[in-house]
Structures are given as structure tokens and as C-alpha cells.
Design goal:
Chain lengths: ~400, ~650
Amino acid sequence: MLRAGHGIALATLCLLVVGVIFVNSASLSVHGSGTTTLHGLLTSRATIFAVLAALCLAAGALVPVDRLANLRGALNPVPWILGISVLGILLTHVPGVGKEVNGAHRWIALGPITFQGSELAKWGLPFAMAWWCCRNSTRAREFWRGFAFPLAVASAICVGIAIEDLGTAVLIMAVALIMMVAAGCRVWHVAMLAPVGIVGFVALIVASPYRVNRILAYLDPYQDPQGIGYHVIQSMGAIGGGGLAGRGLGNSIQKFGYLPEGTTDFIYAIICEETGLLGAAGVIALYVLLLWCGWMVVGATRRDVSPDGMRAETPALTPFSQLLGLGILATIGLQALINIAVVTALAPTKGIALPLVSRGGTGWMLTCLALGLLIAMDRRAASAAVAERAPEGVPAPQG
Amino acid sequence: MPAPMPDSRRVRAWTGGVLICVGALLSLTVLRVAHLKLLPPPELDSTLGSRTSTTRELASRGRILDRRGRVLATTTVGHKLFADPALIWERGWTRIREGMARDPEAVVSTDPFQEVSGALGQAIDMPAGAILERLRGKAESRYIVLDADLSDHELDGVRTLGLEGVGTEQKLVRHYPHAPIGSQLVGRTNIDQQGLSGMELMQERALAPATGKLTFLRDARRNALHIDDDAYVPPRPGQDVRLTIDLVIQEIAERRLAKAVSQYNAGGGRIVVVDPQTGDVLAMADILRRRSGWAEVTEDKDRAKDPALGRNRCVTDAYEPGSTFKPFVWATATELGIYDPSTRLPTPKDGPYRTAFGRAIRDVHYYGTVDWTTVLVKSLNSGMAMAGERMSVDQMRGAVVDRFGFGHRTGVGLPGEEEGLITPADKWTKWTQTSVAMGHEIGVTPVQMARAFSAFCTDGSIPALRLVLPQDSEGSPSSPPRTPVLPEPVALVAREAMERVLSEGTGRKAQSATYRMFGKSGTAQLPKPKGQGRGYYEDRYVSSFVAGAPLQNPRLVVLCVIDDPDRRKGHFGGSIAGPVVRDVMDESLNYLGVKPDQLEERRKGILATGQDLPENAAAPVETVLMLNEDDAAAEEVAR
């Protein structure tokens, strides 16, 4: 029987395939290293990472999520996750390990593996937040213990990220807030602190000239088409290029040095240029499918028959799984939304990648690992349902 | 008992809400993509920048050939040598640093300019020191031309060196292999190979090549990405233009004219050689000599820079034909029956002839009553004036001036052609009538005169002049349209009379021992240039001679005009311009393989007297109409 988890796996793998194709397409160049062959594509870095990411997806699907959350003491994963997240952020500033790309310290290079420091926090914080909310559900409505403390932890991490990468910090913070409110925090607590957050946000923008320029370029890119407006204009030019049908797969012109970051943050523009409106809508459809299947997992209900004979619909997942699922889905969904808004010039430029598509090996792997957890939740819910029906004579399937 | 958990219904509700919002917003972005694809912002197109590059492929300008295919102008591909001093410096230092790092002992020079100039100095004919100076002088520049025209061996040398920051660039070079012969006629091009003067200008449309163009899609580093099928426009070389000019005859004409101009210390000279049967201009030359006192009627600053850039006075400047105009009046009067060739005219025995309105017409010699033919042979002004008086104004203006093409451009195809100076009908007086009969008070261009004279060389028709042979005519040029102007018998009678001009009249010094020529001399006073008062100089002349030969089947018309000869050395058209015409005729007809036709007995006489008789030796010199003060007063009366 086809389940929501299968849909998640399908959508994820499809997005990875799109990623492999377009990372390879967008990195074509005239005087590149030799000719492009099928063998070359199949052994490309992107393909290898896609395979590794698929393995991560499978690995994630095997994780006993709720049991992990209930471990205690030294085995409790939360302190480790938080510690690694903080370490990841700090290491980006350590010479020799931290790597500067395009003038920003966002990357860590550990031997052959490079990844953005904030990746760890992006997936780690939702886990920690879900864990905290479940442990302190009774205090959720209190200001200090229920709201201010987790917010402070999240803020501390996000401020660390925001110095170099405001966009990701905002993304992580938004997900954290959504999880807290979903877990029971009061909405007006959030609303009350909103002005503080906005002031901090504006301060961080004004403090660095390049962020101001990005805002200016967003407001009127044509003011300085060769300077600050260049990236926005080239991105819009790529999307508009080729008309509704697109120029055809592989036929992008903008990728030949005109559109910066064509393989990473701006890969969606190349997809629009090459495959037209259909390709653009197809990628969006895959994300929507992913979110839909995710919702089928997180929002699944079980029909309970209470002892007094009343029938009730109750959620199939534990609150922890639900909260973690929400965090993962919100992260992916918002990240995709922000990236596409930036590429289509609906929002100022930020350094946020298109999840599972933009080039980035470790990013793909961590995202797949997170999505694997959703599949794991689905598998658990499925086996639980089967176990309940088992007394009626159907043998419980294994695995 | 597990710890109390968050309300999973609340979590579920929020999850659903958040995911629906995100999913909906994501779906909406598709509309934005559609918007950008269908209605891109209007500013986008202009700010996006170009995605194509265009390379040009030069094509050669067409050649200019003479009538026998000799190359008068052609285009070759040359090369210029350029350097990028900034790049030489940068790359040179990179190399030196690398060398230092490997083996400091091996580094010979620490000056990239010196290295490059030293190597180049070996390859091109330019001292290394001079190259070094150029490079240092423009060290910051990205492009300097070191040598505008590399020879083949220099080009090879530079290519073999393969120096960084030094390159060669193709360029087209216009060559005139036979210059300066005919160079004024051929003209010049500018540095972009566009015609500036002469045939280069007038035949621009045929000669001009179409530059080839290749437009290709390029990447940001200008590497070619893709070439559309229709993006290549191949270069089309310009068409060759074959002139009617014969280089050999042109050379003969120029050489002989130059000799006469300097011999008579003249201000200038013009010569036109025409094939009267076809109207082909075989040679045309215009010499201006910067001599003190010589006043040009119109200034020509371009010509001062380069003779090939100036105007060609054979078509642009009218001169007063004087007696060379008489044959046209004579023939017309004969045709109209005003006089028969044998009609006796009471020309005065001594002293000037007085017209009905009192104008005194002088002759150089007075012969008494003579026949109408003798009037032409001896160039008697009195006889011509009588004929003029008996002709109506319409006959003079229409049957002589207009019919023979005076006052009309020949359309020979050179820039700036003038139509000459004809007195307007409302100012045409009796005075004018008699003046024009003697070739005065009228301005004609040399090409007009040569064309009109063709009437006596043919069946009485004049051809349209041309300088360019039609493209389709291979070998046998088709005859261009002809305009009949005289009945054939009249043309023949006039031709015979004009043979006598040479054998017994004013053109005896132009007699050829080889060919029987017929022609007419002319000497007119030089009009004063504008701003120097009205009227004519009393002692400055324009001397001309026009002739055709051989008598039976004329092949050539030669007209020579000598402007302002030194009076101390002579000024009569027959003795100054006549010998030029004779020599050009002799040499040209000989070159064309025309059989000599001069009568044996005359031949001996001519050889015996010698061809270049001194100025005062021969008695019958031609007549000059002296326009003195008496005449001016009489003119007033006539008007």
C-alpha cells in the first residue's frame, strides 16, 4: 500500500534528480575541463552526493525518533546536538577550518568535506526545540520558563549565525517560533517581542553596507544595472529568457558567466530559463508534494474507540514527532519559498539555497536525513496501526 | 506515567496552518515566473546587456582597370603591428618573478620592455631603441600601433616570435601601381577605403565591398557559444571597374603635356583624348603648375594637398575656345546654306572689318576677298563675323551651341562637372552673336570640346562620352548612343577644310609626318579672375588645339589646352598646343597600330622644315581677337 512516506521519498528523490541535472547543466562552460559525457555526469560530484543523500534518506527512515528523544543522561542527544550546532557556527571563524566564500565566513572545511556551519543548527535546533517543548509542556504558557528561555537559546544561536548569514538566521528563528507557538506558547508573547526582533533585524541590515545595497537593489535594480542591481537583473533576465517554453534543457545562456551563483542560490532561474514555465511549476509541485506528504504523516489521525464506546480521531504521532515534523517541513518549505522569492526578485537577495536542488553535498545529505526522520515517523505510525488491528487476525508485518 | 505532553491537536492544527500557508505561497510564485516570462519589466531588456558579439570580415574593394585590363588601383591585405604595453609589463614581470623563484642566476633582464623591443628589433625594420622608446612612452596604454604597414618578412618574423602583448592586425591597403600616371583620374580613397575623388568616388557603388559579418552568441568572457544559421553574412568583394582609359595613351598624353607646360612656362595644361566612334575617353590629364603670377580662376585647396584630390579641370573648368569654336559655326552656316564652301566673301584687304553695328573685327592678316573655306583655313575673324551677322540668334544658340552639346554636361562620370558658360538668351546681343562666331564670349569644358569635335570624325554625329566600359562588353565594346548633329556631307567638307588648316593654315606647326590630321587652333585672352576687375588680360592667353586623325577613318580626337603660357615663349594655340596634339596623336595612333596615311610628298616637306618651327618662323599665324579699349567702348554702343 502506497503511504505518505513513500510520497516523501519520491518527492525527495525527484528533487535530487532535478538538482543533479541542473547543477551539471548550470556548471557547463565553453572552455571547461574537457567534453561533457554521460559517464562524466554519472560520476560527477553532484551525482555522488545525490547517492549519498539518498542513503541518508534511508538511514533517517530507520531512526527510532521517539526512543531517541527519550534517552537520558549522556545518551540524551539534545546537548550533543546543541553543542555541535554552536561549534559549527564558531568554527566558521577559526582560521584554517573556516572558509571564506564570496567574502562571508559561512563555510567549514574539514578535509574534503565542506559545509555551511549553520546547516547543523538549522536541523539541530528544531530537534532541541521539540525536545524542550515536550519536556516542559506544562510551563509552555508561562512567559519566563515556557517562552523566554527557549527563545533565548534559539536567539543566541541565531545571532551567532546572523553576523554572517542573516537570511538563514531569520529562517531558523522563524521555525523555532512556529514550533514554540504550536507547542503551546502564547501568541501574544511572540507579538510582544516582535518589535525587539524587528529592531535587531534592521540594525543588522544597517550595520553592513552589502545588506543595504541588497535592499536598494531589490527596490530599484535598474538604478545601477552593472553594480548592485546586476544580480537581480540577470536573475530576472534568466527567468524571462526563452519565453513560456524555455530555451530547452541545457540551452541556458545566462549560465555562461552572466548569472552569478547559477549552480547554487540562483539555480531556480536557470531551471526557469531552460525548461520554461512547465519546469518551474514542476519544481514547485515537487515541493508542494513534499509538504503535502509531510502533512499526511504529521497530521495523520487514528480512529480510537474509547472504553465508553465513543469514537474519536486522535493524532497518530506522538507530540514530539509532530513538533519535529513541523520543524523539518517548515524549514524546507520556508527555505524554498525564500529562495524562490529572492530569485524571482520578490525579496531582497539572501544567501539561501534551494533545498535539495542547489549545489551542496552536505546540505543535501542533512536535508535528506531530516526528511528520513519523517519517513521513520510514518513507518512507526503504520506499524502501530497494524499492531492495533492485529488482534482481528491479520499478522503484523515485519519492519 | 509519561510526562505531560503538549496538546497534539494544537500542534496538528498549527502544522496544518503553517504548511498550507507555505504551500500556497510557493504555488503563487509560479505566477511570478509566468509574469516575468510573459511581461518582463520594460527596463530589463536594456539593462541586461548584450549576449552577442559581431566580428567583421573585411572584403577587398574592387579594382580599377584600364581598358586593356591593366591595374590602376587595387587592394591588398596588409598588416599592422600593435602592442599592449600594459600587458607586456604585467606578463613580463610575472615571468621574471617565476624565473627568480626558480633560479635567480638565470634571469638575464628585469625590464620586460627591453626584452620585447630587443626581440622585435630583430624581426622588423625598426631599431630596438625606437621600439623601446615607444613602449616606455605609453607604458600604461593598452594599444599602440608600432608599425602601420608590415612587410611580409617582418610579419613572418613577428609571428615566429609569438611575443605576449604584441600582435598583428589585418588591414586593407589601396595600391596604385602605375601612379602617378592617371592618378588624378583614378582618384584616391580615404583610410577606410572609401572613394574621395576621381573614379574612386564616382564608382563607389560598384567598387565598394560589403563587409562580412558574423554574429554569435557569446558567454560572459566573449567565447563563442552558438552561431545561428542566418548569422553569417559573407563578405562580398567590390566589383572591378574597367575604365575606357588606355594607360599607354594616358602616359603619352601626360608626358607630352607636362613637357609643353614647362617648356612654355605655362600655368597649366589640359589634354583629352577621345575615341570619336565610341565616345571612350582614352586619356585625360590636367596639370597645374604653381608659377608665380599665374592666377587660378578658382582656388582648389584639396588639390594643393594632393593633385589626385583636386578637381579635374577637364570637366570642371570652362575655357574660352577661341578659334577652335569656328568649325562648329562654319559647319552650321554651311548646312544652313548661308555660305557654300566656295562662296566668295568680301573680307577686308587691310584694316578691320566693321560690323553693321560698328564693331571693329581685326584679323592678324588681311587677305581681301576669299572663299568661305579659306575663312576657316586662315581663321578669319571677319569672315566668321559676317556669317554670324547673317545667322539668327536662334540659329547661333540652338544650331551651334546647343546642338553640339555646349552648355550641357557630358555626363562622362567625373565629380564636379560643369556645363560651361553660355550667355543667357535675354543677354544675347548682336555683339554676342559675332563674338560667339569667333569662339569668344563662351566658355566650354575640354570634354565638351572633344565630344563636339567628334562630329567631324564621324558621319556627323556625336557620341556620349564615357569613362567606364560597360561590364558585359568583353573585348568589343558596344557603341554607346550617338546624337546626329550634322549631315554627313557637311561633316566631311568641314573635315577636309580642317585638313587644310594644318597643311596651309594656322596649324602648320602641328602637322604630322605620319598621319593626316585635321584640326583647329585657338587662342583666347584669359579672363580676369573674380575680384580683379572685369574683362580680359591683354597679354595673357589660353591656347588650345583640337584635332582628329587619320583623315579617312578618324580614330582619335585630341584636344590640348595650355593655360596662360609665357608670352615671351609663345602663345598661339597652333604653335604651343598644336605640337602636343600632333605628338600625342602620332604616338597613340602608332601604339594603336593605325597605318600611316600622310601623303609622301607632304611627308618630305614636313620632315624638311622640321616639326618644331620657332615661334616667328612661319608667316601665317592664327588670328587673335584683340579685345582692347576701343572694343570695350564699341561693346557699350552695341548693347
